[in-house]
Each structure stands twice: as C-alpha cells, then as structure tokens.
Amino acid sequence: MFAIDTNVLIRYLVNDDAAQGARARALVDRENVWVSKTVVLESAWVLEAVYHFSRKDVIAALEAFFGLATVQVEDEAVVARALVCARAGMDVADALHVAVTPAEAEAFLTFDRALMRSRPKNPRVQLVP
Fold first, then answer.
1. Among the listed residues 41, 58, 53, 50, the one whose alpha carbon sits nearest the alpha carbon of residue 97
2. Is residue 122 part of a domain?
3. What is d(CA 19, CA 21) in angstroms, rounded to the nearest whole number?
4. What's the total number of domains in the chain?
C-alpha cells in the first residue's frame, strides 16, 4: 500500500497534466493506495478553489475515487459522514471538522454563522457563547 498526496489524487481526477495523470491512474489501477483525512480536506479545497468544481461535483468526484477497489480512506466512516453533511449544504472542510470532533467534546464551537445556517440539524455545532 502507498499513501498518496493531494497532487496525486488531483491528477487522477482532473488529468490536467497528461503525463502525471497517466502515472496517477496507473498507480491507482495497480496498487492499493491510502488517503488521509488531510488529503481529503486539501483535495476538496483544490477542486473548488483552483478547478472551480461545484460542491456537488467535488463530492461526486471524491466519492467516485473513494469507491475504487484499490483506495482506502483514513477513518472512512467519518469521511463518509462528512460528505453526507456537505451534500446537505455544509462546506466540505467544515463538515470534516465537525465529523472528526470527538464524542467527548461537548460541542463544536464556531463564530461562523454561515456554518450554523448550513449545518444539517446538528445540535453539537454551536456558536461561541
């Protein structure tokens, strides 16, 4: 198994550099790869900010990649839960921040009112008092 960097995942999905895209596809097609939550977070940001993917397209691309037989995602259930929240309207980064919040935390506190409006009925996400 090989852990991959954001740029490998992006090249696989976007193929904006033909040589690197081919190498990324060959790697993922023949080897088991592991994707960290931090790579998920950065990849979502790159797809939105650099490649102008819509949130819906970011989620679809990531889910398709994570569905490949050779791909293993760190804390897969947590990442899947974050993508469900993102599909419901949360920013992917915020959804991942909330999803990784440990159960023993009383709440996920924020000053971000947009996050408060977009969160799918999650009482653990609260404004800083």
1. 41
2. no
3. 5
4. 1
In what helix (H) or strand (E) does residue 102 lie, and over which residues does it extend?
none
Q: What pTM did the predictor assign?
A: 0.89
In a domain, 39, yes or no: yes
Outline where the chain has alpha helix (H).
6-14, 18-30, 37-49, 55-66, 76-87, 92-99, 113-118
**pLDDT tens string 30-54:** 999 999 999 999 999 999 999 999 9
Residue 32 domain flag: yes
Contact 40, 79 (CB under 8 A): yes
Q: Encoding tokens for residue 52?
A: 């102008």
What's the CATH code of the domain at 28?
A: 3.40.50.1010
pLDDT in tens, 77-98: 999 999 998 998 889 999 999 9
